[in-house]
Amino acid sequence: MKTICINCPKGCELDVTRQADGTIVVTGHACPRGEAYGRAELENPTRMVTGLVRIAGMRKPLPVKTKTAIPKGKIDAVLFALHQTTVQLPVKIGDVIIPNVADTGVDVVATTNIGIW
Amino acid sequence: MCLEDQNDVGDDVIVIGAGVVGCAVARELTRYNLNVRVLEAGSDVAEGASKANSAIVHAGFDAKPGTNKAKFNVWGNRLFEDVCRELKVPFRRNGSLVLAFGAEDEKVLEDLKARAGQNGVPVEIIGQDDLRTREPNVAPEATAALWAPTGGICCPYELTFRLAENAAANGATFSFDAKVEKVEKGEKGEKGEKGKWMLTCADGRVFAARAVVNCAGIHSDELNNLVSATKYAIQARRGEYLMLDKDEDGTFDATMFQVPSKMGKGILVSPTVDGTVIVGPTAEDIPDKEDRATTYAGLEKVTAGARRTYPGLPLGKVITEFSGLRAHETTVGDFILGEAPDALGFFNAVGVESPGLTSAPAIGLWLSERVAVKLGASKKNPQLISKDVSWWPKTREMSPEALAELVARDPSFGRVICRCEEVTEGEIRAAIRARVGARTLDGVKRRTRSGMGRCQGGFCTPRVIEILGAELGLPPEAFLMSRKTAPRRLNESARTFGASKDSGAEPLDVLVIGAGPAGLAAAIAAKDAGAARVLVLERDDAPGGILQQCIHNGFGLHRFKEELTGPEYAQRFIDEARTRSIPLVCGTMVLGIDPAADAVGRAGLHLVTAMSPRGGLKIYRTKAVVLAMGCRERPRGALMTPGTRPAGVYTAGTVQRLVNMDGIMPGKRVVILGSGDIGLIMARRLTFSGAKVLACIEIMKKSSGLARNVVQCLNDYDIPLLLSHTVTDVEGREHVTGVKVAKVDDALKPIPGTEMHFDCDTLLLSCGLIPENELTKKAGVEMDPKTRGPKVDANMATSVPGIFAGGNVVRVYDLVDWVSRDSETAGRAAAAYAKGLCA
């Protein structure tokens, strides 16, 4: 499988293959992150999801993220959960907004401070 | 006799059309004891030819002697000065030059001179040497010119607006969205309205009046033809224009015409009262009276024509392009003014094309007198005529003292909303609150110039819709849905040298302009390097800069060895600055830097002038300055994409702010032009937010954004990336309805036959970023034409001692981590410089 690493602006072109014995070989990467990314793209591709949730009584939304990458196939379920959520202020960076979002085992956390100075 | 209910009958005179002619007529009519109403089909004044023309006050040498065009041009030109003074609108008699290119042209100049003599217009023919002395930028091929000193320039929409304000101050009523469809005489016996003109609008409203003045511009023939057997026919004649950045101010002093030749009427190049340069127009007869689209062919014609006059015409300085429609009457070919012979009480101003703007004051005088005589109306006592024009102060033209006083009185005049044109919140509110106030983004734009500068609303749009919403009690997004529902610039050195109070006794060591990633990093590094007094000035209401709206991840991998979102990355620096007690002053716009040229007189201190709603105007004295203003997006105008100019076209960063910070979704079906990183990021964001992103169109053979963004923002969501394609037409009158896309050849020209069509309601532009360097240039810092930022050395020092720069203001970076790193260098060097001054 050919893919482009998304970890940094370099955008290494990776070649990922599964050997006959089941081991995965990644080539083309320039760092260990690239190798891990290549491996994951073949086995279980994941993505960080960043999004917005509503703040009660405000037009301005709250930016949030999944604390770590979640399986690619779960993106829609995460977005749906974000859409269903309204938070109360104040909120600070790192506050858990949705624990274990869409059964991924990953929390959604706030990425900005609002109502806190 | 004036009845309250506008559905009832009861005006003396109805003027149809709120363009410059209609408003001039209405204003003059209010000098008589008459009830005056203006019906306008659009939702604002100056919606037709008055908003899109050359803005020239013609001298009157070229109109055929004996015609109305000649008579009213020369008369109007004489009136212009007084009218503009009364209305407090900018006007400058800069004079006009008609260029001849060779002997044949020079003969035409003689003809024009003879014609000018007959029209009573002073002109003289000047030779090549004289011409080049007056206008050093003129093409060397120009051999002679006709000089007409009475030619001038003005702002046509500001003139129209102030005419309307003064008419309204004197009792005229304006009804908008009132497209007159039926004109008939009231039947006898009908509620005492015998013989009145009954006007029925498209929405069913009926208005009645004893007299009607038809100033309906491009549609004036249709109205006349409803009531008179003398039929007229107006041909829409489109003219396309380019507008050049204020950087080009001073290129020409006079308005530069060319002799009319076989090649057509010629393209003019002229300064404007606002300091920009206007180039155009083409002349093309078109069948559709509403088609104000620009075209490839038209813009090429303008460029080629203008280059005959101005060979150095820099296309990189184009900020916008537009087209207007002339109301060319084909049966008479002249202005048709006065009462229709077979429709008594129905007055015409039909076929008022160029020199219509110049003639408007005279037409207003002449027609109003005819109407008054007809109705037997007497003149009002001059002392009872209001001179009010709903004037408000233009902060960009004020002296520092006056501005400081104004902001102290009304802090909203200290909040800059449009940074390119320096328009404040107070001005925008005044424009909305005026008698015939702004109701749309365009209305605000034409009254205040907010959004008319080089970024074309990229920065101010979210802020203006917020103010419109608050003033008019509507949700801000209502103003995104549709385009409906010079005085000379202030001497910049005077502004910074002004007598305003100094901000404090002790000078700063390092003053940082901008609290984005670059400014914060520089301030922290300066403090750590031993600068005691460090201050950061920020224009926005909160620190963080553009990172506030970059809610996606991908920041800080190098710096912090972890993947952060924009706001998280910014917060780390904000926290660091707070730990060090570095003051971050938000809501403060720096207006100018006066570098310490004379180190003896001022102890090597730079003077930085800044304005804020709370603090008013302040001058900071500082040993070193770090420029960290970031960059801005290239607007549509700079791309020269042809088509209409509907609502729904945004730069990607503007939409990023609307969606991520203001909670406003601009559309549902989106096409993205350009594959810059912000566009790619927004493709994913809009998809997440429920929109359908149809395609990302890139003119080059590869994406200009990072490969990783193509993968995770387009490929992950099956959004097609069309390389070697471009948008060839934008469709939609009020709002975008679709775009045409075509493949391009190696010369980047669209290939015929490859067009495809997308139905969409939004077009996003992601075509690159430009360092924001107005302040840098004003400070006299040497620029690098390649990066469009200041030239800097390894210490990020600019050519001016004590002025340093960091981040996107220097060059556009891919990665914020490197912005922080290089800005820290700038901060450290600034601190060292400040220390050196102490020693």
Please render the helix and strand layout as text.
The complex is a heterodimer of chains A (117) and B (839).
Chain A: E1 2-4, E2 13-18, E3 24-27, H1 32-43, E4 46-47, E5 50-55, E6 62-66, E7 70-71, H2 75-83, E8 86-87, E9 96-98, E10 108-110
Parallel strand pairs in A: 5-8
Antiparallel strand pairs in A: 1-2, 2-3, 4-7, 5-6, 6-10, 9-10
Chain B: E1 11-16, H1 20-29, E2 36-39, E3 56-57, H2 68-87, E4 91-92, E5 96-100, H3 103-119, E6 124-127, H4 128-134, E7 144-148, E8 152-154, H5 156-169, E9 173-175, E10 180-185, E11 197-201, E12 206-214, H6 220-227, E13 234-244, E14 255-258, E15 268-271, E16 277-280, E17 284-286, H7 296-309, E18 318-329, E19 336-339, E20 346-350, H8 356-375, H9 400-409, E21 416-418, E22 423-424, H10 425-433, H11 441-448, H12 461-472, H13 492-497, E23 508-513, H14 517-528, E24 534-537, E25 553-555, E26 564-565, H15 566-579, E27 584-585, E28 589-594, E29 606-612, E30 616-627, E31 631-633, H16 636-639, E32 649-651, H17 652-660, E33 669-673, H18 677-688, E34 692-698, H19 707-714, E35 721-723, E36 725-731, E37 738-743, E38 756-759, E39 762-765, E40 769-771, H20 774-778, E41 783-784, E42 789-790, E43 803-805, H21 816-838
